[in-house]
Write a structure and sequence with these properties.
The complex is a heterodimer. By secondary structure, chain A is mainly α. Chain A has one domain: ABC transporter involved in vitamin B12 uptake, BtuC, CATH 1.10.3470. Chain A is built from eleven helices and two strands; from the N terminus they run H-H-H-H-E-E-H-H-H-H-H-H-H. In chain A, strands 1-2 form a two-stranded antiparallel ribbon. In chain A, strand 1 and strand 2 form a beta hairpin. In chain A, helix 9 packs across helix 10 and helix 10 crosses helix 11. By secondary structure, chain B is mainly alpha-helical. Helices cover 69% and strands 3% of the residues of chain B. In chain B, a hairpin with a 2-residue loop joins strand 2 and strand 3. Chain B is globular. The chains are: A mainly alpha, B mainly alpha. Chains A and B meet through helix 4, helix 9 and helix 11 of A and helix 6, helix 12 and helix 15 of B.
Chain lengths: 291, 358
Amino acid sequence: MQVLQVIFSGVAQGCIYGLIALGFVLIYKATETVTFAQGELMMLGAFAGLGCVTYLGWPFGVAVVVSMLVMACIGWLIERVVINPVLGEPAFAIVMLTIGVGYVARGLVTMIPNIGTETHNLPVPYADISFQWGSLVLGATQLVVMASTAVLCGLLYLMFKYSRVGIAMQATSQNQLAAYYMGIPVKRLNSLVWALAAVVATIAGLLLAPITFVHANMGFIGLKAFPAAVVGGFGSLPGAIVGGILIGVVESLSGFWLPEGFKDVAAYVVVLLMLVFKPNGLFGDNLRKKV
Amino acid sequence: MRFIFKTSYQQDIQLARHGGHVFWYGLLLWGLVTAPWWLQEYWLTQLIFVMIYSIMGLGLMLLAGFTGLFSIGNAAFMGVGAYVAAVLSAHGTPFPLTLALAAGLSALVGAVVGLPALRVKGIFLGIATLSFGFIVEEGLARWESVTGGNAGIHVKAMVFGSWKVDSAASFYAVCLGVTVLSTLFVLNVLRSSTGRAFVAIRDSEVSAQSMGIHLAYYKTLSFMLSAALAGVGGALYAHKMQFISPEQFGILQSIDLLLMVVIGGLGSVHGAFLGALFLITLPQFITLGKDYLPAVIGQAPGLQSLVYGLVLIAFVMFEPMGLYGRWLKIRTWFELFPFYRKGMFKRQKSFQKSDRLK
């Protein structure tokens, strides 16, 4: 029974990884750039929520919506100001750029007097509720994480399947040039994708906040989302969530069965094995150029 | 303006292309050799750090700048070298042997990392090396019987027979010697067929392969050489710091190394040195500038990471060739005066090329 409990918390943790990975994958799919700033976006989102709830005293629901909107603007701005001018440069230049963005975000948050260097608790209405199911204790925070992930995935699926914007994004991700010729505003879509990724990151941040607290270095968890994205196949949206859950479960199980220390590297061992044996990931598409 | 009149094929691969090179690099070397006599000890220490980081930068430059394989885990190799030095010097091993073993073991580790490099490329390789870096860092922290775990380990001074390297000047001399040797080594690799194979792989794997270059061999070799140089740098770093712990070789150190080669200028040996110089002097400038800023900004703990980020963004956006690229432009301006045009180094805008199609 204890194993089930461990798996349960692993799935909840994995959903967070999956949500951050979802941001990577959204951006990678649409613009072919890999961002290292996703964790920092998540951190900014959590701080935005914290600001709304603690310092402005708004109700939690309003704070969630407002911080999502604010972060969408920030994501859009980052793309406009920093990423867009260097599109077409080698992929690694853009990676370095996003590392720079991450540094700036972390630096700026740390510079806020009295707030940036502290660790905060985000008061959420569902913090201390838990359910008993057999011998299993299901915390509301974890259930909320899972439920929100499921809802978000459903919404994204519907958007990509049925809405005009979603279909346009799919077209851009398959071939930017062809999409441009078809009259799709590729540049505007790229900005929109960044905004969307920032919103997803904010949701991840707000969900993570009751579990690990809010602080300037919480963005480093984003580094664990890379394995999630790779295991799922870097270009696949459902893959990101599945990969995240897989990584989360492996991590908590290795914390349960293996000696201390393995928990921290389990994700990376999994991703190395994946890259050696199946570089395309679980759901990755195997495209080959025909010369 | 200088025109080089080539009279033999040897001239194409000569290390010093013309008299100017001989003169200026000779002057630089002379200045460096005599530095202990005219430089304060504080600045000598900074110079030592510049050299140590240059050696590691040379390694990463070989890998990232010349072979096109980006590693976000080079600090792991550095860590291996550092711990080899720490453990061996505790047993009184002479430092040439320590350095050689540090390089050798790091190279072996590098060969292991090279394995995924044969199957993945681009960002996936970055993630593979990142993961590897985490695993090595955790391994160093957990293998307590040898590495002392998270508590760290003290490193004794270098010894060679009866000569003990304990003063700043003698350590500087050792560092200078190792730096010069590493630089010559990298330059020689680059002008040999191996170096040309590296560059060919960077520019296009498909065409390199069709010219008969064995990708697996050269990629692994590149990883090994890079790791060996990082190991040598790590060994010197350990002796300089005299105390090492696993978190000095984590992701932040790896990103620092990358930042160094990107800011210095990818694909140039000069870039490694300029980047190291930049990386070491930037904190000093930040400390100097702190007093002139209002206290809210100047004394804030996040200032350094903010400046790092802004500088990195500025370089990638406005000077993709780094400090060395800027220097090239300045030099060309003087060489062509008054005929320098603004668009001479302009690169063509292109649509994003897909990484997903192999």
